[in-house]
Amino acid sequence: MERPDGVVGRRLAQGRDHAPHRGPRRRPRAGGELVLARNAITRLADDAADIDLVRASQRLSLIASELQEGVMKTRMQPIEHVWSKVPRMVRDLAAACDRQVRLEMVGGDTELDRSLLEAIKDPLTHLIRNAVDHGIEPAAERVAARKNAAGLLTLRAYHAGGQVVVEVIDDGKGIDPERVAAKAVERGLRTARQVSAMAPAELLQLLFLPGFSTAEAVTNVSGRGVGMDVVRTKIEAIGGTVDVESVVGRGTTWRLRIPLTLAIMPALTVECDGQRYAIPQVSMLELVALDTGAAGAGGIEHVRSAAVYRLRGELLPLVDLRDVFGAPERPTDASTVIAVLQADTLRFGLVVDRVLNTEEIVVKPLSPRLKAIGLYAGATLLGDGRVSLILDVQAIGRRCMGVEVVDAERSATAADAVHRETVQVLVAGIGGDRRVAIPLAVVTRLETLPAAMLEHVGGREVVQYRGSITPVVRLDRLLGSMVTDRDELTVVVSTRGDRSVAIVVEEIVDIVDDDAAAHSDLGDHGLVGSTVLKDRVTELLDVRSAIAAVDPLFYAEAPTPGSGGLTPADMVALTALADAGAHDVLAGGVR
Amino acid sequence: MSRQLATFVLDGARYGVDVLKVQEALRSQVRTPVPHAPDGVAGLVNLRGQVVLTVDLRTRLGLEPLAADAEPMMVVVQVDGEPVSLLVDEIGDVIDVDDEQFEAPPETLDPALRDVILGAYKLETGLLLALDVTRATAA
């Protein structure tokens, strides 16, 4: 398992280890200051009419970038410097834990800032210990599970999107989300009610809570109470993230995402209530500018009090930065921009007033007195010399969404649906004090239309909706409820491909989690059963037959990707397919 | 034993801090507010490339805020190796005081203030209140 000599030779030839250590900390700071000064001058030159000044500033900008790059390069070291001790460590661990472990290391030449290498050493060691001790099973157990007696531990490093990703992958027994949930309840970290509402991916996130350890037996190697929370804290301290994926029986992947360097990072500056804030580019997915006044078309919608935005057919939960800061409401005529952010597995939209610029910012440490607030990752100086706070996207996401967060992205993936016992449903009143639940997955939009828009094609009611003729389902008539005529129709639009159906309800009540286990098969024509939601008996709408009644071709056409118009039945079918595929791939990989 | 205190004025009263803790005194600068910061935190300022926390002593000491048009001054002190800027009304002289002139704060002082005011030096020109910088800047 020792590294071939050639590698060591190359490392020495690079000679970075022998670079003089004089003032290694001073250099990047000066580099950072240079970037700041460059930013300041660029800003001044932008406002200036003097063409020579603009040219000089552009030249300075170029040189500063080159110099910055050069300075950074001298600090970069391949990650194999940290990995070099891993083979020995794994061998010792395997012997101590009585495991057979094969080690593979991929991408050892991936380079990282020296100070960051230092910082990830401990977390990496912890993850490796954990993988050998708890991940990989004893040989006998593996053979019984028809796996190779020797477990495979893979370390992989690669560059991705301005970050370095380091993965610790084992093909061991995996982490059972149910056990994680049980443990979290037992430790009093979450209530049984909370965990029952969580998706498996969210349950695995509980591993990072302080005071969590699933190790049943405390061994010499791990399970001494120093848990994944320490790993997370250490990685987040250097601006990185940790996440975990696991399939029971097949293995676990721990993934560290680490910024290339500490000193400087690209960030987006935004304005909120007259103040400027920086959002690390790493967390940014995209920006959505909202047309003011056009709230009806593509604006912010509300599910009760929770603001959401429909981003290409998926509901994106929104957090208004003004609300986070307790700032006054945004004037209605003010511009609004949604920054779509990714934090851990949460995806959410941060609503800000204005986007200003992308800038390379130099991270300045924040006074410890302000760290407790937990909303800021640091501070920086902008081009005009003013201090600006760097938002801690993870913390804001966690704080504003808590455990109730619906991981929009993950819930849409088929793989998730199979484990998921709870499905989000839209609860609507249909008159006569009756309530029906419609799976949120089939809901594309909620609209209020004037009743005058109803027209007839033959015996059917239709509306012109977004330029096409859309058939209308009257739930009150379909389900034989009391019919009340109104001037305005509350409509749930379901879209699949380019076909839409408008389902008329009396009122939208709420969006809640529906636990499939609590279902009763007590139903009627047009229903698939009933359940109790929010202490009220709620009928479960048979969406498929309700829609097919007015548009038999609705399910005939292949949906366009990302239309989000899958029924739960479709999802399960897809899941089965995806699952089967995954088995084959994994099985092939193990052999 | 005698020591030197850097003095400043808040709402007409004179306060002093150990001169060795004072880094500099300067005009106030543009402050960046910090939402959800503890009471008394007046924002962050850029002090020659360093981001420095500013504490409004008036708020800390339970005094009325300074009039909107008045411009406060900043006294930058070192607390636990970190510079912290204190907002004050006016900056005074550095004064030599003697331990014999010192007296603990009176029993009648507001308990919230007893925490941050070490005591008073009885000078001929009036009382000089000694401030506990660490406590006054604690969140």
From TrEMBL, chain B:
SUPFAM superfamilies: CheW-like (SSF50341). Residues 2-139 form the CheW-like domain. One of its GO terms (cellular component) is cytosol. It comes from the Bacteria. One of its GO terms (biological process) is chemotaxis. This is Chemotaxis protein CheW. It comes from Actinotalea ferrariae CF5-4.
